[in-house]
Amino acid sequence: MTSPQPGAAKNDEETLRQLLRDRIAQLESREEDPPKSADEQAAYEAFHVASTAAQALVADREISPEEKLRVLQLMYTDCIANVRDLEYDLGMEEKRLSVAELDYSELGEELRKIEASTEKLKAQSKELSRQNKAKLEESEKKSADERERREEICKKFDEAMKEINSQLNQGENGKGAKDELTDKLESKLEQLQVVYDRRETFYEKTINENTAEEKQHVDKLKQAEKDFEEDEAKLALEKMELGEIRKRTSHLRSETNQLLVQRDEFLRKKKKREDALTRQTADLKRLQQSIADLRKATSKLENESEELKMKSKETIAQVKSCEEELDFWKAKSKSELDKRETLERLCRTLTEERTIMRKEVQAMKQAWRMLENEIEDLRMEINEPQAL
Q1: Fewer C-beta neighbours within 10 Å, C or N terminus of the chain?
Q2: What is the pTM of this model?
Q3: Does 382 reside within a domain?
Q4: Do residues 55 and 71 touch, judged by C-beta distance below 8 A?
């Protein structure tokens, strides 16, 4: 079994921190444009808050790498959920915009129909006015013709009467000629009366017919005027409705323009968010790959940890054996210490006795030297008399 590396777990944790720092730096470096709108500012601030939280999480030494990975996965899951919520809101706005555009197109179609019907009513009104005017002119023309005919007949009758009177006044040629002329004049007058009666009958008939026709035309004209007034009332009502519709259309156009501006803004934001989501998805994939690598490293660390646990168990067994041996040696050492203390006491006793004996020996040596000196003195004393 291979020996465990003491710094393996620490190195893997440092690798995780470095990977997360690199990822945060890479995401921060992609913020090229400063935020312009309130939403972009909020997203920018949220991104920096999340980055700060991630850095604080990475820098926290009291949390295990597995717990850090779990928290980071939760953070990315929340980010993805927020992006999906934004996509849902954008879809709802697009649906509302499409409904508004559909309503606008329907109102435009209705407005076109109303304008077409209004133009048709105007054309009919003009045609009725033209027909009424033509009929009125025709009736006036017929009345003028009849007046001219009557005036012409009256004029001819007056001329005939004048001629008769003049001829009567000139009746100086005799009674027979006068009677003959009177007969001729009466015959001519009767003929004129017949012609006049016929013409009067014809004129009366014509006038009656013209009067009936004029009455019919007048009735038609009144009916046409009534219809025209009704059409004008309807047209005025439709104009009012058209004005309301135009107001509504103008309002809807204004709202549509606003919605189009909002749609363009939403499309721009959507494109930007889709780009950001694409980048985040790519970053998430890379982070998932990093997490997979870290999981492999964690699995490797777990395997090494299992090996270390096995080795630790063996070491614990060896430590227990060593402890037992240590207890044995402690007991033996204690016994040896007791023996040593006994020997030390014995040595101290022997040392003391040796010191005493040394002192006695020195005293004996000193006494011996003194004895030798005395002996020497005695020898000298003995030798002196012999010399003498």
Answers
A1: C
A2: 0.33
A3: no
A4: no
